[in-house]
Amino acid sequence: MTDPWVALAPGTDPAERTRALRRAHTAFTTAGRVERPVRQVVADSWRRSARAHVSPECTAEVELAEADLGAYRAEHPLARVMPLMRELVSTYAMDGEHLLAVCDAQGRLLWVEGHALTRRRAGRMNFVPGARWAESAMGTNAPGTAVAVDRPVQVFAAEHFSRPVQPWTCAAAPVHHPHTGRLLGAVDITGGTPLAHPHSLAFVQAVARAAEAQLALEQPPQSPETITLHALGRDEALLVAHGRKLRLSRRHSELLTLLARHPEGLTGDQLLLALYEDESMSPVTLRAELSRLRALLGADLLASRPYRLTSPVEADFLLVERRLGAGAVSGAMGAYGGPLLPSSSAPEIVRLRERLDRGLRAALVDRADPQLLTDWVRSPWGGEDLDVWQALAGASPRSARAGVQAEVRALDREQSA
Fold first, then answer.
1. Are residues 181 and 233 in the same domain?
2. Where is the OmpR/PhoB-type domain (predicted)?
3. Were both Cys, which of 104, 128, 171, 280 would link to 154 (CB 3.0–4.6 Å)?
């Protein structure tokens, strides 16, 4: 198959592939094994679904009832391009007895339109407006997986994680705001086996691009300047804001990291618990640190009640989190510059650091890519990571395996001594 994002290669028998996928789905859901002919994008999605504890028998829940749904989608940016998407898809959907569906960035369906009989059938599995079809809720499916990995994807038959969805085939493509790059949601076409054709994936990509082009004609919104925080592999974070580069003290590094992680803001009490192991620490000490930080950054950047940053923050550790969440392991590894504020003992920083490291290490071991595993064990922070060394021994080509196994034995003896 030349395109791993297309479900069926030319000449593939759909019925035979469906039977093979059902056997592979059973093997995965009962024993955790991924077998042929499961594509890599689907295998990665199945693993994310399992980690999210999605049931193979799940059905979607409706999160937005009629009144809430109407108000929410009226204000959603994709409402402005729905007439265009309807115009582009309506004939295709009606002729093929397909559905046009549009979801938001959280995988909630906002519109489901198309052939009446197909809509009734889809309604029996709650493929309806207001239902949540995020990958973390429903497992592998085109709209949910498209927003999870942020790229067009086709899902055929038993590639769906949920068995009630396996009679269906769908293709979806993410839609971004052209001025900000923000993921707005995805446009999806859902129907029967004929949608497994490469043309359906190309078509839904074209619809997404047309929607973005329409949005590009709008006046760009005025938004605050994004600030950038580099906190991975550094004891003292680097902040880039308003054309200035600021090397922060260790306490200010911790404060900025916490505020970047919580854009909604944190109260003084929450910051005290996050920063200090000693619960008797005086709030006066914290207020003094925040006052010094405000003087350094400028009063317009740090607000209070609750304490929060007034400009969008792009932080290196948040980028790694997003890429891991999307299954982009190579991209996450490329953005990872080392442990988060490695010398910090602030309780919440320690939790964030350990969670990020565990997530990345688990993804590397799961992916079993020899180059990525080698990059980790050859890094300053991964050289003594026995679990990753063992994964590398299993993933290495036969010609290199003996040398890696020798490293594993030596490290095991050293750590057992």
1. no
2. 243-309
3. 171
What are 151-180's pLDDT values in tens digits? 999 999 999 999 999 999 999 999 998 877
Q: Examine the domain organization and report whether 238 and 190 are in the same domain.
A: no
How is residue 174 written in tokens?
């993410």
CATH number at residue 122: 3.30.450.40
Q: Is position 84 within any domain? A: yes
- Percentage of the chain surpassing pLDDT 70? 97
Distances (CA, A) of 252 to 51, 134, 236, 275, 306: 35, 36, 8, 11, 17
Phi, psi angle pair for 266, to nearest 5°:
-135, 145
> Which DSSP string do the residues of 23-81 spell out, in sequence order?
HHHHHHHHH----TT--HHHHHHHHHHHHTT--TT----B-S-HHHHHHHHHHSGGGGG
Query: With a threshold of 0.70, does the pTM exceed it?
Result: no
Task: Judge if 60 and 169 occupy the same domain.
Answer: yes
Q: Provide the domain limits for residue 394.
A: 343-416
Q: Is 230 helix (H, G, I), strand (E, B) or coil?
A: strand
User: DSSP E strands: which ranges in 236-362?
Assistant: 238-241, 244-247, 302-303, 308-309, 313-315
Of residues 239, 172, 227, the one with CA closest to residue 200: 172
CA distance 21 to 8: 12
- Identify the pLDDT of residue 213: 94
**Two structure tokens written together for 270:** 């929450």
Half-sphere exposure in the Cβ direction for 137 (13 Å, CA): 18
Question: Other C-beta atoms within 10 Å of 398: how many?
Answer: 6
Rounded (10°) CA dihedral 58, 62, 63, 65: -170
Q: Domain check: are 306 and 199 in the same one? A: no
Of residues 82, 73, 58, 260, the one with CA closest to residue 164 = 58
Report which of 300, 320, 328 is spatially closest to residue 257, judged by C-alpha positions. 320
For 187-245, the pLDDT digits (tens) are 999 998 888 888 889 999 999 999 999 998 876 655 556 789 999 999 999 998 877 88
DSSP E strand stretches across 290-384: 302-303, 308-309, 313-315
CA dihedral of 45, 173, 89, 133, whole degrees rounded to 10: 40
**Does 129 fall in a domain?**
yes
Does residue 161 fall inside a structural domain?
A: yes
